């Protein structure tokens, strides 16, 4: 192969860019026909480039001209208009003023530009979001010809003054006809590039502070607040007292493998796994009590229902038996679902219109029968080898969910073997190998509640510490509960985020948190 052929071969591979980078001497080595073709391509490319430059220049000049023009446009508030009433979108009522509504009223709304749609240079539709709702605002003429208007992007914050008008086509039947507006905080155009439909889950989580402004994410957060309120209302309606146990502790509640250790002014300490032990000490003080606080688990698994920090709704009651406990748990879940349906309104209709009141009583299934169910329905301990569960095996998340989905209704799974459960659980009087324990399993989500009767005999608790190799010293205050006026008592812990996944039909637990914490993520 001679030099010219070699150069031609390279050209095929490298293309026009390589040719344009060649010096005269290198080009002289190319075969004539090839050189001619490449020169023609080069000339075309240069022409194209010049044209693009010209167009960009013209566009820049046009933008500059429009900006200069826009700078001359000054808008002022018309003092002859009625004083605007400062309002929240969610409070606007689609009815005439004489019926206590806002149609025809001049209002001032403040919020963020959720969407922008330019109909023409002189007509802009702006969807305003203020956290309480959304409203379409119409801006026309000079109002959308100012420099601020030309530079307006999504997520800028604005104050809009205008009259509320009824419009059947608009969401909520109302529209704001703007007569004056002010930019409060601009938002750069790059907002459009940060999140796109193609953004992968990791990008969405890195940009969670922006994602939560979205229609769906913000609806979930608002519903989370309503659901939390429903739990509090259930507790207060039933005369429980809210307590606030510490979350920085020196005792473990649910086993050492998921403890977060930290240095507490030179002393070893943990982030709490559950407030249960402290809550138990509250019952002789205030009676039935509850708390809604974060719990922490150094979970190795990062499944769609595990977090490292979750909100734990825990309650504790004195002088009850196991049957009372089961009924209280069932009542809590069914009553909170009823309250969520009643309070959820439009948000619930959008997120989960299928949420229905729960049928009571819930199905009860002993651990022993659950093992039988799995064996009968080919739910295996090990799929690959088709190994069946035996009594005493832990039924992990996957098989447990399969069983729950097959049964298709909430289940109170009860009486787990002592070997599978925490040190503090009371034994069943009829079979001391079992505990008076309960997990609530819900189709689609799995376990949402864990609870039990507590060991209330001092000596039995001491034996349990020994069996589990736990030093009783840091638990003296918990043990004292059994020394000074012990009584039969029990309680439960419900994972708020898991319950929200169920109530709002959300697949992934991360989507119901403001800023989820799980293995591999601690920002933002
Ligand atoms: O079953 P658990 O571990 O029970 C306890 O912590 C008891 N001390 C509670 C009590 O009796 N006061 O946890 C209770 C519930 C689970 O059913 C689950 O809903 C939730 O807490 N939970 C988690 N939620 C999200 N991520 C995690 N890593 C969770 N671990 C537990």
From TrEMBL:
Location of the region described as Disordered in the Swiss-Prot/TrEMBL record: 45-65
GO cellular component annotations of the record: cytoplasm
GO molecular-function terms, A-Z: asparagine-tRNA ligase activity; ATP binding; nucleic acid binding
Keyword Ribosomal protein set for record: no
EC number annotated for this UniProt entry: 6.1.1.22
Domain Aminoacyl-transfer RNA synthetases class-II family profile residue range list: 221-524
EC primary class: ligase
Protein name: asparagine--tRNA ligase
Organism whose genome encodes this protein: Porphyridium purpureum (Red alga)
Taxonomic lineage: Eukaryota, Rhodophyta, Bangiophyceae, Porphyridiales, Porphyridiaceae
């Amino acid at each position: 192969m001679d030099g010219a052929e070699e150069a031609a071969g390279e050209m095929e591979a490298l293309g026009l860019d390589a040719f344009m980078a060649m010096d005269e001497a290198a080009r002289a080595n190319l075969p004539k026909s090839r050189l001619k073709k490449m020169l023609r391509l080069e000339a075309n490319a240069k022409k194209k480039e010049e044209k693009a430059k010209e167009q960009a220049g013209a566009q820049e000049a046009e933008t500059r001209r429009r900006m200069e023009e826009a700078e001359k446009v000054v808008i002022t508030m018309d003092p002859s208009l009625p004083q605007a009433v400062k309002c929240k979108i969610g409070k606007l009522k689609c009815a005439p003023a004489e019926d206590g509504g806002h149609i025809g009223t001049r209002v001032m709304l403040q919020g963020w530009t959720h969407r922008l749609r330019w109909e023409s240079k002189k007509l802009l539709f702006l969807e305003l979001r203020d956290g309480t709702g959304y409203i379409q605002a119409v801006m026309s003429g000079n109002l959308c010809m100012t420099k601020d208007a030309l530079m307006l992007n999504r997520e800028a914050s604005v104050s809009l003054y205008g009259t509320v008008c009824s419009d059947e086509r608009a969401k909520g039947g109302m529209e704001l006809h703007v007569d004056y507006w002010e930019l409060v905080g601009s938002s750069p155009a790059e907002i459009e590039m940060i999140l796109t439909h193609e953004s992968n889950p990791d990008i969405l989580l890195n940009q969670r502070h922006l994602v939560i402004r979205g229609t769906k994410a913000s609806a979930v957060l608002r519903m989370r607040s309503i659901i939390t309120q429903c739990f509090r209302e259930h507790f207060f309606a039933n005369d429980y007292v809210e307590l606030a146990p510490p979350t920085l502790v020196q005792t473990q509640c649910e086993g050492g493998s998921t403890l977060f250790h930290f240095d507490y002014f030179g002393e070893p300490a943990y982030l709490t796994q559950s407030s249960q032990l402290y809550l138990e000490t509250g019952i002789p003080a205030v009676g039935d009590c509850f708390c809604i606080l974060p719990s922490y688990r150094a979970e190795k698994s990062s499944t769609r229902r595990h977090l490292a920090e979750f909100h734990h709704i825990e309650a504790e009651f004195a002088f009850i038996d196991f049957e009372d406990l089961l009924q209280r748990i069932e009542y809590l879940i069914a009553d909170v679902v009823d309250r969520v349906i009643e309070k959820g309104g439009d948000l619930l209709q959008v997120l989960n219109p299928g949420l229905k009141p729960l049928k009571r009583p819930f199905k009860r299934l002993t651990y022993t029968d659950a093992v039988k169910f799995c064996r009968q329905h080919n739910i295996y301990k090990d799929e690959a080898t088709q190994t069946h569960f035996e009594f005493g095996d832990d039924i992990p998340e996957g098989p447990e969910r399969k069983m729950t989905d097959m049964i298709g209704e909430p289940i109170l799974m009860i009486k787990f073997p002592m070997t599978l459960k925490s040190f503090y659980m009371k034994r069943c009087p009829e079979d001391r190998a079992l505990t008076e324990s309960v997990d609530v399993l819900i189709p689609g989500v799995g376990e949402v509640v864990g609870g039990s009767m507590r060991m209330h005999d001092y000596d039995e608790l001491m034996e349990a510490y020994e069996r589990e190799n736990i030093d009783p010293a840091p638990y003296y205050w918990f043990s004292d509960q059994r020394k000074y006026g012990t009584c039969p008592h029990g309680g439960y812990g419900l994972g708020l985020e898991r319950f929200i996944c169920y109530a709002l039909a959300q697949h992934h637990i991360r989507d119901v948190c403001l800023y989820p914490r799980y293995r591999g993520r601690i920002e933002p």
